[in-house]
Write a structure and sequence with these properties.
By secondary structure, this protein is an alpha/beta fold. The protein has twelve helices and seven strands. The termini are far apart. Keywords: Oxidoreductase.
Amino acid sequence: MHPPEPPAPAARPRLGVFKFASCDGCQLTLLDCEDELLALAAEVDIAHFAEASSDAAPGPYDLALVEGSVSTPEHLDRVRRIRAESRHLVTIGACATAGGVQALRNYADVEEYLATVYAHPEYIATLATSTPISAHVRVDFELRGCPIDRGQLLEVITAFLSGRKPGIANHSVCFACKRRGNVCVTVAHGTPCLGPVTHAGCGALCPTYGRGCYGCFGPAATTNLPALIPVLHRDGMDDEDIGRFLHTFNVADFTAVEARGPGVTGKEGTE
């Protein structure tokens, strides 16, 4: 009599990583998880990740990580297809969560840009705006940053694959500075800093080295941007300087917060 066959191993969760209009930096954050990458690869089936392998398997996917903004007509069809094939969809980085620095086009004439930059603009297929993934499909969580933080990325992947809510804090960079014991660059040195209105996630990297925060992670959950403007004026910035300060990685989000006025609430990671 033959012994019973051992049970078949459970199928590993399938992970897909996708790119839209972006620089690939947030995808590279996953590849930079050197100490954890082998353990992660043993727990999941990396079915689609063009940055890492040309072997791209079709869906469905248990978790899709999406980098980049929707900036072309082709993107519209593709993002809807990815959403339909994915149990969970998480956007990673400022381009995917806020439209990225390319969202500067939203406040200008894209036809003028095309005529200035390209010798034959008739061959370019683009949208007039650069928009976050959440403007077009349902998103289960937004992981912000330019680029994202590797520790937060691993936390989000682990949380979704284990069926729990990601433990990503919604406080500002000022909170992170206090945890590190940093001397406030604004109070001590009069350095313009967006730390009071910026979502934490970088570990207060710039203030730790004596520079002001540049807002890489976008508006904090509770953001009173109008209250910061007089402080930036005091520290030597005029209105044009402040506009340039805000209109970088998360231009669309900071512009929206500025327009809503005092006592506003910024974007949070959503689930």
